[in-house]
Model the fold of this input.
Amino acid sequence: MPDAAEQSEKPRIDRSTVAGLALALTGIIGGLLLEGGRLGDITQLTAAMIVLGGTFGAVMVTTPMPVLTAAVKALPSVFWLPSTSSKQLLQDILRLAAKARRTGIIALESDLEEISNPFFRKALRLAIDGADLKVVRRIMELEIDSAEAKGEAEAKVFEAAGGYAPTVGIIGAVLGLIQVMKHLDDIEAVGHGIAVAFVATVYGVFVANIFFLPIANKLKARLQRSIQLREMALEGVIAISEGMNPKLIESQLERFYDGDERDTEQRVPTARPSRGRIAA
Done:
C-alpha cells in the first residue's frame, strides 16, 4: 500500500470512514429498536462464530499467507488519512527543478537524504547517477506495477471475505433450522428458534456490506492515489533531468493534482494517466 510521503504530516483519522460506519450502525440498530426489537434479538454468539469463523477460514484457504498478512497490515490505512500530500510533492519537485537549472542535477545529491519517500528518492538517485531516462522510466514503472499488483491483491482479500460471508450466513441459518426441526412439538420454541436461526444470515449480509466490501473499495481508492503520486514523482524526476522550466513542469503535473485529501477528506477518483510503456 502507499509509502511514506515526501513530506509526512501528522496522521489524521479519516472522518468519512468513521462517520460512515457510525451512520450504518445507527441506522440499522436504530431501525431495529424503532420496530420494537431488542439488541438481544441479534446478539447470538453461535451465529457470530459460524459466520466469522467460516468466512475467515474460507479466505485463508483461497489466499496465500503473505498476501493475507499484508492485507491485515493494510487495514489501519482505512481509518487514517494518507500522510502524502500531492500539493507538497509538487512543491518539492518544483523546488528541486529550480535548483537543478541553476546548479545542475548533480547538485541535487545533497538533497537526497531529505527525501523520505523511497520511490521519489530512488528515481532521483538514478537520474543523478546519469542513468538513461528510458532506463529510469522502465525501472520505476516496473516498481509502480509491482506496488499496484500488491495493493490489488490486498483489496481482493476483503472482496473475497465480502463474497463468502453472506453464503456462510445462510449455512448458519440452515444449521439453526435443523435444530429447530427437532422440537416441532413445541410451537413457541419453534418460532423462537427460527428467529434465532436467521440471525446468522443477518450477520453474513451485515459484515459483507458494511465492513468487508467497503474496506476493499477504500483500499482501492488509497491504492489509486498512491499510484498517481508515484507517477507524479516519476514524471517530475524526468522533467528535472531534462532541465525543464519549473513553470512548464507545474503545468504538466497539474493532471495528477486534484486537491489534497488531507484537507478535503473526500476525493473523486481521476482517470489514471497513460505512462507510455517502453518495450523491454
